[in-house]
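Box 3.1 A note on notation
Throughout this textbook, protein chains are presented in two layers. The first layer is the amino acid sequence; the second is a C-alpha cell string describing backbone geometry. Keep the layers aligned when reading.
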Amino acid sequence: MKVNYSIRYNIAVMAFRYGHWREVALPLLQSLPLGKLQSTFSSWIKCLIHLTKSQPAAFSAKDLSLSQMQMKAAQITAQNLTNVCDKGKFFKFPYACIEIFNDIIYLLHSYLVLITVNRMTLNNEHEYAKRGIAAQCKLYSARSAAALNKLDILLQRSFDVDNESRAQLFLLQQFLDLIHFSLGFFCLSPPSRMPPPFFVETNSPTNAHLLELISWARSQFSKLYEIEKETWKIRITETNVYFVKDILFKLFTNSFYLPRSFFHFIYTTKIRLNIKSEGKGTSDHGRYLVSGAAAFHPIMVEGYVETNNPAGIQAVIINGSIAPYAKVGTEQFKLIHQRAAELPNDINHFALHFTFNVNQTSSIRFEASFIDKTTKKTWQSNTVEEIIIQIGGS
C-alpha cells in the first residue's frame, strides 16, 4: 500500500519527537520527491535529512565527527531558511534548537577526542600533560557557557510553545549545566558547585525518562564532591575523566527528541510596530530626510498586539537604540530608551513617544518584549523595526 507524501512527513515528525531519527525519519524523508516540492519546503526537508543523519550510530570519535558534520549542515540550511523573506520567522525556533544541539555534539566530541588522545598521560606525574588537558577544558567550558546563554534566549522566546516543549528545553538546559560543570571540574581553577536542580513538571514519557536520567546523573556527579576541593592535579585522572564521559554519553544517547514546537507552535502572538518620525519620507521605506542635526528628534511608536495564548499579555516593553548609519549587520547600537505600555481591559494597541539625539545620519531600532498576565514573566518577541534618519535632506 502506498502512503502519500503528507502522511510520510507526519510520521517522520513523530519519529523525530520520539528519538527514531535515523531508523524511521530518514528513509521516510528520503522518499519524498524534493524536485516536485515548493523550494522552501524542499530546503526544509533537506535540513531534516541532515538532522536525521546527525544521530550517531555509535559513540566513537569518528561517529561523533560525522554527526557534527551533518548537524552543522542542518544548521546552515536552517539559517538560510530564516532569511526567506515571507516565511523566515517560522524557522527561527528550529534554527536555534539545531544550533544548541550542534554545540552539544561539538563539546562531547571534543571532550572524547581530548581524553582519548591523552589517555596515556592522564595518570602521568608530569604536570605539563595535565595542564594541557586543563587548558582545553577551559576553552570548552567557555563554549558551553555560550551555549547556555543561547538556550536562555530561546527560553525567553518560548511564550507560544506548548508546556511539554518548554519542559524539554528546561531539561536540555539541565543537561548543558552538567556538561558545563564537568568541563569546569577539570580546569585549573577550583570547580564551581553543581547548579541546583529546578522543578520540571511533565506528562511526556520522553521528558519523564530524560528527567529520571538527569536525576541519576546528578547523583553520580555528587561523588565528585569528595575530591573537588583537591588540587587540579588530583582531579585530572583517567578514572575521573572516563567516569564523567560515561555519564555524559548516557545522557546524550537519550537526548535525541525534538520538541513539538520545533515543527509548530500551538499559539500565536504577533506584535506589530508602526514607526512615525519627523522628516521627509523617501521612496526607500523607513528612511526619513531631515535638514540638520537635532538634540531632541521626536519619534512615535504605535503598536498592535494579537495573541490567542490564554496567558494573555499585560504590558509591552519597547527598547529604543541608536547607531551611526553603517552596513547592515555591522552597526553598533546603543540602548537609549526602555518604555512600557500597559494593556488594560484587553486593549490591543498602544502608542509611545521617544526622543533621540541625532547628530549624524543614524539607524534607530525598536525591539519589543512583553509581560504575560498569568506568570508575570518577561518574554522576548521577534519584533524588530528600524528607521534611518538621514541628515542633510531637503
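The two ends are 71 Å apart (CA to CA). The CA atoms of residues 175 and 206 lie 14 Å apart.
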